[in-house]
Design brief:
about 25% strand; 9 strands; alpha/beta; five-stranded mixed β-sheet; two-stranded antiparallel sheet; globular
């Protein structure tokens, strides 16, 4: 018997990370493309991102996605994310993919004009088709969350 996937894409972001903010159009494109098969949720793990700041951030970047505050970094610890932006693709409690959205950022302060590998899109395409995700983890480049998790 086939069990349907219940995909959730957690997109870890902050209101003031420039790399996260540059990914807003790509996140919205992917949410639009896969929205009928996966739920996209913005996750704000930084305590300084107040409800007002989050509302302003979502308005400024035209996000229509649901969002949650991960005040105690429980979701950060559960998924193992270390930077923003970083994504975790979950099927219920089972992680299918964690890492970068694409390879546009090679290192902090070093980027390409366009990505050559679209990791999140590839992972979602495989999962939705019922195929194995070949690369289950990639290293994301962005603003570090390490000081939050103790």
């Amino acid at each position: 018997m086939f069990t349907a996937l219940v995909l959730t894409v957690y997109v870890f972001t902050t209101t003031d990370c420039p790399i996260s903010n540059r990914y807003a159009p790509e996140i919205q494109r992917l949410a639009s493309k896969f929205g009928s098969q996966a739920t996209f949720v913005l996750v704000y793990p930084v305590p300084g991102d107040t409800d007002d700041k989050i509302r302003e951030h979502k308005t400024r970047f035209a996000y229509s996605l649901d969002s949650i505050r991960d005040r105690d970094q429980q979701l950060v610890r559960q998924t193992g994310v270390t930077v923003t932006p970083e994504v975790a693709v979950m099927d219920g409690a089972r992680m299918l993919y964690r890492g970068r959205i694409d390879d546009r950022y090679v290192d902090f302060g070093k980027d390409r004009p366009a990505p050559t590998t679209r990791d999140l899109e590839t992972a979602l395409t495989a999962a939705i088709a019922g195929k194995p995700i070949k690369v289950k983890h990639t290293r994301a480049v962005g603003c570090f969350l390490a000081e939050l998790v103790k």
